[in-house]
Design goal:
Elements (H helix, E strand, L loop, with lengths): L3 E6 L3 H12 L4 E6 L58 H14 L6 E2 L2 E10 L5 E9 L5 E6 L1 E4 L6 E2 L13 E4 L13 E5 L3 H10 L5 E5 L13 E4 L2 E4 L3 E4 L4 E3 L2 E4 L3 E2 L12 E3 L2 E3 L1 E2 L3 E2 L5 E3 L8 H16 L8 H17 L14 H12 L6 H16 L8 E6 L2 E5 L4
Parallel strand pairs: 1-2, 1-7, 2-3, 7-22, 9-16, 10-11, 10-16, 11-12
Antiparallel strand pairs: 4-5, 5-6, 8-17, 13-14, 14-15, 18-19, 20-21, 23-24
Helix pairs in contact: 1-4, 4-6
C-alpha cells in the first residue's frame, strides 16, 4: 500500500507537532512542511517588522519584545517533550522559541521543512472512488520558482495570531491620536508620558496594559469583563468598552469619557485562510470556522484539517492530541461518522456553548471545556490523558491571575507527581 502524502502548512508549534508525528509513522505517511518565514517557530519568532518582511510577505508574528508566557512552562509543553530547565516558570518568548527549535532538532524535522516557501493555493481534486486529492501551489520566495504539488491530505497549521480583528467604533476616524493593533505592538517606549487606551483585557490587553503603566502617563484598560482586574498600578484605570470616539478621546459605555493620545486594539484575531480556493467550501462567520467536526476535520472533505483553532486552551497539548487523531482517521484506524452525523455533532457542540451563555464568537473557545475535549481525543486513539495535575496548575494560575495581575508571573511552580504541585510565592 502506498504511503499517504500529507501537506503541512506552517512550521509554527502546530506544524512542528504535525511533522514530529508524521515522521514517526513513516510506514504510513510521507509529508512536506511549507513555511513562509526563514525559520521555524511561527508566532514565537520575534521581529521588529510589523507589516511585511523583506520579501513582501505579511509578518506572521504578533510577539512583542518583553512578552513572557501566561502559562507556566511546567504545564505548557508537548506531552512527549518536556521543557528545558529555566530559572522561572513564566518564561520569556525566546525560551519558547529555543524549546521549539530543540523539539525540531531532537526529532530531526528540518529535513522535512521547506522554509521561505509560501502556499498560494490549495484546491481539492476529485479522484476515482469518491476520494479527494489536493493540489497545493507553492512558491519559493528566494528563487521565485513556482510548483504545483499533489497530496492526499492537508493539515492547515497556519496559526491564528496573524489577521487582526478590528471592531467598529463610532467616530474613530475623528480621533487624532495614534491607533494600532496589538499585533504591531513591540515595546512601550513610544508611549512614554502618553494617555493610552487599551481596548480589551484578555491576555495581551492585560499584559500590554501592565507594561505600558511603567512609562505612560495614564492607561485606561477598556473592557466588558464581568469581574474587574485587581491590584492595578495607580496610573491604570479600568473603564467599560468604548461607545464612541472623538477628536480628543473616547466615551465609554457608562458615558464616562477620557482624553487620550493613543489607542491600542487588544481585540484578538480573525481566522484567515487566504490560500483556500472556493472549492474548499470553508466558511467563517466571525470566529467560527465551518463545517468542522471536533473543531478539526472538514465534514465534507475530511482529508483536510485545521489544527489549533480552539482558544483559551493549552495549545501544545491541543496540537498533540488533534494531530494524532486526524492521522488515525487518515490511515483508517478510526472510521469517521457520516457527513450528516458529523455536522449534527458540530451543531450540538455549538448549541451547548450558546446554552452556557457563550456568544457565537466563542464557537471554538475552550477554557474549562478543554479537559473533556483532550480526554475524548486521547481515548479515541489510545493515548495517555493529561495527568490531573495539569488542570490543577492551570486553574490555580487562572485564579492567581484574577487575584493579582501585576505579580502572578513572579511565582514559580513545581509539579511533584500526577496529582500534586508546589507554588512558590515570590515577594514583589
Amino acid at each position: 500500500m502506498s504511503r499517504i502524502r500529507v501537506a503541512v502548512i506552517g512550521a509554527g508549534p502546530a506544524g512542528l507537532c504535525a511533522a514530529r508525528h508524521l515522521a514517526a509513522d513513516s510506514a504510513h505517511f510521507e509529508f512536506q512542511v511549507f513555511e513562509q518565514a526563514g525559520e521555524v517557530g511561527g508566532t514565537w519568532c520575534y521581529t521588529e517588522f510589523t507589516e511585511t518582511d523583506e520579501y513582501g510577505v505579511p509578518i506572521h508574528s504578533s510577539m512583542y519584545r518583553n512578552l513572557k508566557t501566561n502559562i507556566p512552562k511546567e504545564i505548557m509543553p508537548f506531552p512527549d517533550f518536556p521543557f528545558h530547565e529555566t530559572e522561572t516558570s513564566f518564561v520569556h518568548h525566546t525560551e519558547v522559541l529555543k524549546y521549539l527549535k530543540g523539539y525540531a532538532e531532537h526529532r530531526d524535522l528540518y529535513k522535512h521543512i521547506r522554509l521561505r516557501t509560501v502556499v498560494n493555493k490549495v484546491t481539492p481534486v476529485p479522484v476515482d472512488g469518491g476520494r479527494t486529492s489536493w493540489s497545493v501551489s507553492i512558491q519559493d520566495l528566494e528563487t521565485k520558482k513556482r510548483e504545483e504539488l499533489e497530496f492526499d491530505a492537508v493539515m492547515v497549521c497556519n496559526g491564528h495570531y496573524c489577521a487582526p480583528y478590528i471592531p467598529e467604533i463610532e467616530g474613530i476616524d475623528e480621533f487624532r491620536g495614534s491607533i494600532q493593533h496589538s499585533k504591531a505592538y513591540r515595546s512601550p517606549e513610544a508611549f512614554r508620558n502618553l494617555r493610552v487606551v487599551v481596548l480589551g483585557a484578555a491576555s495581551s490587553g492585560a499584559d500590554i496594559g501592565m507594561e505600558l503603566s511603567e512609562v505612560a502617563g495614564e492607561v485606561y484598560i477598556s473592557h466588558n469583563l464581568p469581574e474587574p482586574l485587581l491590584y492595578l498600578p495607580s496610573n491604570v484605570k479600568q473603564v467599560p468598552g468604548i461607545k464612541s470616539a472623538s477628536r480628543e478621546g473616547f466615551t465609554f459605555h457608562d458615558d464616562s469619557t477620557a482624553e487620550a493620545d493613543a489607542l491600542i486594539y487588544c481585540t484578538g484575531y480573525r481566522f484567515e485562510f487566504p490560500f483556500l480556493t472556493p472549492e474548499c467550501k470553508v466558511r467563517t462567520e466571525g470566529r467560527r470556522v465551518m463545517p468542522l467536526y471536533k473543531h478539526l476535520i472538514h465534514t465534507e472533505l475530511p482529508s483536510i484539517c485545521f489544527v489549533g483553532l480552539p482558544f483559551k486552551v493549552l495549545p501544545f497539548p491541543l496540537f498533540h492530541f488533534q494531530i494524532q487523531y486526524f492521522m488515525r482517521t487518515l490511515d483508517g484506524s478510526i472510521k469517521l461518522p457520516s457527513k450528516e452525523e458529523m455536522d449534527e455533532e458540530a451543531d450540538r457542540d455549538f448549541q451547548k456553548r450558546l446554552a452556557l451563555d457563550m456568544p457565537p464568537s466563542c464557537a471554538h473557545e475552550m477554557g474549562s471545556l478543554q479537559w473533556d475535549y483532550f480526554a475524548e481525543l486521547a481515548d479515541c486513539i489510545g493515548l495517555k490523558r493529561l495527568p490531573p495535575v495539569v488542570r490543577m496548575v492551570y486553574d490555580f494560575v487562572a485564579d492567581r491571575r484574577k487575584e493579582d495581575l501585576v505579580h502572578y508571573k513572579t511565582e514559580s511552580y513545581t509539579v511533584l507527581d500526577h496529582g500534586h504541585f508546589e507554588n512558590k510565592h515570590v515577594s514583589p
